[in-house]
Specification:
TIM Barrel, alpha/beta, homodimer, eight-stranded parallel beta sheet
Chain lengths: 359, 359
């Protein structure tokens, strides 16, 4: 079926389509459904407790023998910085007043944990076939231990420089994350969003720079995008936003409703919701405070101060303070389930591979 | 050869490859060389006097019977705004001091003229097969008159909304200009660069939204990009940065030398050099004042105040104040000539069309 078998062989899957791990937006059900259609299911662990990771992975292993990807963030945990938190709260105080909320720095809806010994223990228990990271890689001793377990290692690059760093530091597969992608930019050697690179330009330059297989991410939402990614030298694709439209997605109704009406130019990269740049649908907070700002608390704590505003606003049916992660191709997506979506993407791509041939 | 013949038939050319009109960077020679290889040569007229347009087009018509594209800007000429000019000069005064230059508001290196009656007269004399515009379209009476001359009309869209507007207002072909593209963003219904869209996402959404053929632009520098563009639904490609590496390019040595070492993440969108957002290689001015700023004079006059700084700096061999237009794929380009480049692009693309087929 697929002429390029680098990823299907390496991961032992049927279709070189990776369901993007979307922390907070997907769990066991989406990974299982994706794997049923021969794609690589992913369990995003960045926002899960160790107990929850075990629960989710147990469900997955009961349901399917298919290879799995588990994903972790590898940021440095920030030091407590009450002064900086206060600056961010002060910046938001007018919204607190508007909603008659007391400023209260004790909320904690921002529980993103970096990869650590407990997470390693979880991986050791389940030995997922693929372990992927966002924001770089964990320290090399972890990488060695993961490889001894037989796990293939993936991480995302937003520049050629990051791709070369990942290859040098032991990645088996590199995801080239184009500017179009939804959610957190993987960037870890730069924090300059002005120089982030679109998929059309990034992908061939990364492919030329590294020897390992490259997965394309960013703006890919149908068979056309998959074919384009392979044309540019990708060995597979990682797809996010279309999976937010599946019944297995764990996003709020308000998030889905905004996705369903989002157009090509309705998103921007913002650091307001977590402290790190991530692409989401533009809402009131992004319009009024950002989309980028110097004031949010350090990743991942910036969302803490937004929690009460988000909750109150969402209760009133508005998304003014919600993080509405989305890539730039939401308008190409439709509601479905993750198995059907994965099948559709594969069939659409394979048909287009045939159609495009010149004769 | 090419399975999709929409553009080759419409423009009566052999290869659906358009040499991007790059004002100030190309003239008759590049257009002629491109046409010799069966691509569509373009004469950028935005920075030419009417006399110079006639001279260049006379040379072209003497050299080749191939169809030609002439390109114009369609901005509104700004009113004289000495106050705003002074703000911009004040902002640059430290650099004037550094170079021991007197602030002098009488320079004029920014002679971009919008399409006007004299330009129409020029078109009427030469009846180029294609007339393309940047920043929208001229008023409809001009469009009617151009069409009566038999000219096909093209313009660029940076969003689906702009593409729909261009189709509704009479464009025969729409160029979808992705975020990766070098030079001026064509944006005319928005001025928000935060929501500009990458080629991978923009192209299929534009293709779905309009009925006319869509040309892909932005990040395309080799056969891989051309194949990807067709995979995404394009009927042709417009290619810029690779043509800056040809011997027919009119760019400075310092510009070429920066292009030759530019990496994927060495460019940003900046409004400092003309007043409108354009992608160029990052230099000192962009680092220190931008890349985007609220202070530059209105398009196209912002460059006026930079002229003396640019001249002095370039004389010292540095590009700190030069506009170094480039897309995000400069690292894929190499020095050549425009005929060889066009041939190479076509052959590379056609070979890749065959290679990618699954069996």
């Amino acid at each position: 079926m697929w002429l390029d078998k680098r990823i299907t062989n390496l991961f032992n899957i049927q279709n070189p389509i990776i369901q993007a791990p979307m922390a907070g937006a997907s769990g066991a059900a989406m990974a299982i459904a994706t794997s049923k259609a021969g794609g690589l299911g992913s369990l995003p662990c960045a926002m899960l407790s160790i107990e929850k990771m075990h629960t989710e992975m147990s469900i997955i292993r009961q349901e399917t023998k298919a290879p799995m990807n588990v994903n972790f963030f590898v940021h440095d945990k920030p030091l407590i910085n009450l002064e900086r938190d206060q600056i961010w709260l002060n910046h938001l105080s007018k919204y607190y007043s508007e909603f008659n909320l007391q400023v209260d720095n004790q909320n904690s809806n921002s529980s993103r944990e970096p990869f650590n010994e407990a997470a390693f223990g979880f991986v050791e228990s389940f030995r997922p076939e693929v372990v992927s990271f966002h924001f770089g890689l964990p320290k090399s001793s972890y990488l060695d231990r993961l490889k001894k377990l037989g796990c293939k290692i993936m991480s995302s690059a937003t520049t050629v420089e990051e791709a070369c760093w990942l290859e040098k530091n032991g990645c088996d597969v590199i995801i080239a994350q184009g500017f179009e992608a939804g959610g957190h930019r993987a960037m870890f050697l730069t924090n300059d969003i002005n120089t982030q690179v679109g998929t059309m330009a990034l992908l061939p330059q990364v492919v030329d720079a590294v020897s390992v297989p490259v997965i394309a991410a960013g703006g890919i939402a149908d068979g056309r995008g998959i074919l384009a990614a392979f044309a540019l030298g990708a060995a597979g694709v990682q797809i996010g936003t279309p999976y937010l439209f599946t019944k297995e997605a764990l996003i709020s109704e308000i998030h889905l409703s905004r996705l369903k009406t989002s157009k090509d130019n309705n998103t921007a990269i913002t650091n307001l919701f977590t402290g790190r740049p991530a692409r989401g649908i533009i809402n009131r907070l992004m319009k009024e405070v950002g989309p980028m700002s110097e004031f949010p608390s350090e990743f991942p704590t910036a969302g803490k101060a937004l929690g009460p505003l988000k909750n109150k606003a969402e209760a009133q049916g508005n998304s003014d303070f919600s993080q509405l992660w989305s890539g730039q191709s939401a308008s190409l997506c439709k509601e479905t389930d993750a198995e059907a979506l994965t099948n559709c993407l594969a069939i659409d791509a394979l048909q287009r591979f045939k159609m495009i041939t010149s004769n």
